[in-house]
Amino acid sequence: MVLYASWVYARCAGLLKAEVTADMGKAILRRIVIAQAFYAGGAALCVINTWVSIAIMIALQLNYAIAPAYRVRHRSSSE
Fold this sequence. Notes:
Blueprint: H1 2-12, H2 22-44, H3 50-78
Helix pairs in contact: 1-2, 2-3
């Protein structure tokens, strides 16, 4: 919630660079909401199996840490 609130505040207060388009802002908000929903689901799985919950949390961390850099590299090499 704090990350979401920070983004909304920055957008409303005019703290974003001019290069940030409305579509980029929507994508960032969508990413925040989707990621937090997955984290909540992963945390809820600890009721069923703690190890599965931990594995999902690690997979989510790796996805959000590694995937953006991979996508940028992949895009630049295909052009």
